[in-house]
Amino acid sequence: GLGFRVPTGWLRHAIPRSTALVVQDHAGGLPRGGWLRAPLQRRLMPAADAFMFTAVEQAAPWREAGLITPRQQVHQIPESSTTLVPVPRDVARGCCGPELRWGTPAILWVGRLNTNKDPLTVLDGFELAVRDRPDATLTMVYGEKALEWAVRRRVEASATLRARVQLVGRVPSGQMPAFYSAADLFVLGSHHESCGYALLESLACGTVPVVTDIPSFRAITDGGRLGRLWPPGDAVACARALVEAARLDLATERRRVLAHFERNLCWSAIGRRALDIYTEVLNRRRSFSVP
């Protein structure tokens, strides 16, 4: 990971010159520590031959800071995948519990209730979307509860939301395929993500994405060709995206999502892509290595 700059520098000196060293982004963020540490960081980062990000745009701040040099390669590959598989719709909804209602469309949120995931903007957008889709429901699954009080207050303040939003909270991991499979649309309001595990899981189960237009989500949704993307923090755009996605032939879209996941995002697809990257980086390293 990019957060292990000192060990990466030590490792480069300990391994043969012909051995390639690849670093993968895991949402470490740019290093802190002021100007005194900047020269050290710039000496350590060149130890890597190449870097992998979920989206190549995520490397831009590192290049601008001089921490990834022009000679170092940057490759696009998802940070992770999932082994989740879809569950038949009728079985899935039964597994989620009889107390839950699944509207038309049934929209699912899975994510922490924090400022980055921005649940309040999603609630605002959903409330606006209900004007066009009065039978819609929003089911929210979450672990971290930093903004739960604000979410509950927002829901209670609106008759529209009270009737259609279901705050489920934490769900055992073994039940998540059922929740994803029970829903038509998956919504998330993230302002930044290194990858997006919940999004990957939802795609593995065929849920149509309606997520924010950020680099990692663009990459994972095939440039926004799956579902709809909307600008972070924009409730009106969120509502528009939900309504547009709801008007799609959701059965057809579900098949497209599953095919895209199997072709590009499952573990075997990521493994093949990683091997191609490693081969390219290794060949390049050895072509420039001094015996």
Classify the helix fraction into a percent range: 40-55%
Order of the strands making up the biggest sheet: 6-5-4-7-8-9
- Unreliable sequence segments: none
Strand content: 5-15%
Average pLDDT, rounded to a whole number, is 92
| Separation, N- and C-terminal Cα atoms | 28 Å
Largest sheet: 6 strands, parallel
Round the Cα radius of gyration to an integer and report it: 21 Å
3D structure, described in words:
The protein is of the alpha/beta class. Helix content is 44%, strand content 13%. The strands form 2 sheets. It has a 6-stranded parallel β-sheet, with helices on both faces. It is elongated.
List the helices and strands and how they pair.
Blueprint: H1 5-14, E1 22-24, H2 38-44, E2 50-53, H3 60-64, E3 73-76, H4 89-96, E4 106-110, H5 119-129, E5 137-141, H6 148-156, H7 159-164, E6 165-169, H8 176-182, E7 185-188, H9 197-204, E8 208-212, H10 215-220, E9 228-230, H11 235-246, H12 250-265, H13 267-288
Helix pairs in contact: 4-8, 5-11, 12-13
